[in-house]
Amino acid sequence: MKALMYLGEKNLEVQNIPDPEGEFLVRVHGCDICGTDLKTWLHGHPNFKPPCILGHEFIGTVERTPQNSGFSVGDAVVVAPYGECGECELCQRDAGELCKHKHNVSSGAFCELVSVPLDFVKSGVIKLDFLDDAYTLVEPLACVLTAMDKMHITEKSNVLIAGGGPMGMLFALMLMAKNVSVTISEPVEARRNQVSSFGVRTTVPDDVNASEYDNIVVAVNLPSLVEEYVKGVGDNGTLHVFAGMPGGTILALDAAAIHYRGVTVTGSSGFNLPAFHRAYEIIKADPAHFRRLITHRFRMDDAVQAFETLAAGQAFKVFIQP
To answer: Which of 128, 157, 194, 196 is the most buried if burial means most Cβ atoms within 10 Å?
Structure first.
């Protein structure tokens, strides 16, 4: 099969490699570039050692399946790239996103075929009515839903999202759907204009008064913002660290804010399977609403241009087809 191989920082190459083995195969229709893919391409990542295949926000069609799997060849599907075991202590504590015994698909999805373990098909593969690029957003939306479950948001909340990228936008869309007041702080004017086109209120970082917000999501990898907003968020507020911070980051948090003002600091990484299934149902209700976040599409042969476009801040989500 054809695969986009990550060979090191800013080094991608389309190669022909053996098809994955397995009884349940999915032919990839397309996969979005996520923030982790971009960071890996730019700077490397400890979890992705070259050579490897990146990409995990994908949809496709069933290429091979055993009988009685619940699927047929040709079915359109969205696939969770991993999923918790459901049995370990962390899973029993409703922290499946932290499970150490996850099921995983055979590789990243910037390729033509992905194999799914048979014991993961039932919980990790969702049959679609038809292929729609919007469903590539199920995984990132699941990450947002997992994060929101750890926050303390009410109908009276006023929420600040620091960072107007795709993940910040997904937070905003979910909060607006709940009629919760939300503002995105974004320094880049072109990105603010993109965010505003969705009807989301925006501001610039210099104009933020953190005390006006009872929930703040840091969706950019700036440790200084975490420290600043813990000190400034409203009384009894929640600060959620959503973006991955540079390796070795140590945060200096204001103890008085936590002790005397009741500020809670939370964080999350990834998703759990219940959130993945909830995200699917949300997108299924209005795929066109979410599809607008995919602003650019490329073929795999033009993947370097796709990554460069995203790195230049010229796109929200970038979709790559084999």
So the answer is: 194
